[in-house]
Amino acid sequence: ENHFSEDLPLKGKKILITAGPTYEAIDPVRFIGNHSSGKMGYAIARTAAELGAEVILISGPTNLGLDHKSVELIRVTSTHEMFVAANSYFEDTDVFIGAAAVADYRPKFVADKKIKKSGDSLSLELTKTEDILASLGEMKRNQKLIGFALETNNEEENARKKLKRKNLDFIVLNSLQDKGAGFKSETNKISIIYPDKKKDFDLKPKKEVALDILNEIIELLNA
Ligand code: CTP
Ligand code: CA
């Protein structure tokens, strides 16, 4: 807290962020998940709070915590829980940032007892999860909506399709090309893609990447 707080660029803004992976239960002791650490989403949440925003961080299972008076941390496990939480806060928010690595499919049936080993193979039937960002894209009024994409091929084209399909204001494309970028690392290399332009950023610590992303959001809010 300092005496410049009145001048903080996100003062009075409400920012809703999803972070981390989601886990989809198979039985009482097993799940389908992914390697997302949550670091990028948590870095954005902390930095947004430091810039004066009121932040609600909806987090899937991670080892991280975030202790800041302007951050409310809501922990969820499954995509459905994340979807319900995101929907319940969306109307009252200025900016939504979907930084979570959301599962695309979940087991169609969750066994109520631990599945016993039997036979040489096992098939799991999967069914699609809710697309949180796409559904908020359909509901959005004045909110700014930001997504992430990690692509291994046709990066820009695929990211642009998501930008359009999910009705986003911009999408952050994570580059896999560079060593040190991505899921578990402390650094990230991004491009920010708008409907009509693209900005490329250098490989840098996630804290600084978070600031780059929030600076774009501040520009959008002031436009
Ligand atoms: N996302 C979401 N809900 C989902 C899947 C994705 O909110 N069920 C969000 C992510 O948080 C991310 C963006 O959508 O901000 C793009 O996620 P990504 O996995 O790249 O896109 P998908 O639409 O799932 O397409 P695909 O995995 O086939 O590339
Ligand atoms: Ca996906």
What are the segments in which pLDDT stays under 50 over at least 5 consecutive residues?
none
| List of distinct ligands in this structure | cytidine-5'-triphosphate, calcium ion
Mean pLDDT: 94
How many domains would you count in the coordinates? 1
Shape: globular
Order the strands across the largest sheet as they lie in space. 5-4-1-6-9-10-12-13
Pathway: Cofactor biosynthesis; coenzyme A biosynthesis; CoA from (R)-pantothenate: step 3/5; Cofactor biosynthesis; coenzyme A biosynthesis; CoA from (R)-pantothenate: step 2/5
Protein name: Coenzyme A biosynthesis bifunctional protein CoaBC
EC number: 4.1.1.36, 6.3.2.5
Keywords: Decarboxylase, Flavoprotein, FMN, Ligase, Lyase, Magnesium, Metal-binding, Multifunctional enzyme
What does this protein structure show overall?
By secondary structure, this protein is an alpha/beta fold. It has a single domain (5-108, 126-222), classed as Rossmann fold, CATH 3.40.50.10300. Helix content is 27%, strand content 26%. The protein has helices at residues 39-50, 79-90, 132-139, 155-165, 206-222; strands at 14-19, 24-27, 30-32, 54-59, 71-75, 95-98, 105-107, 126-128, 144-150, 170-174, 187-188, 190-193, 198-200, 204-205. Strands 5-4-1-6-9-10-12-13 form an eight-stranded mixed beta sheet, sandwiched between helices. A two-stranded antiparallel ribbon has the order 2-3. Strands 7-8 form a two-stranded antiparallel ribbon. The radius of gyration is 18 Å and the shape is globular. It starts with 13 loop residues before the first strand and ends with a helix. Bound molecules: cytidine-5'-triphosphate (CTP) and calcium ion. Cytidine-5'-triphosphate binds at residues 18, 79, 98, 100, 102, 104, 129-133, 147-150, 162.
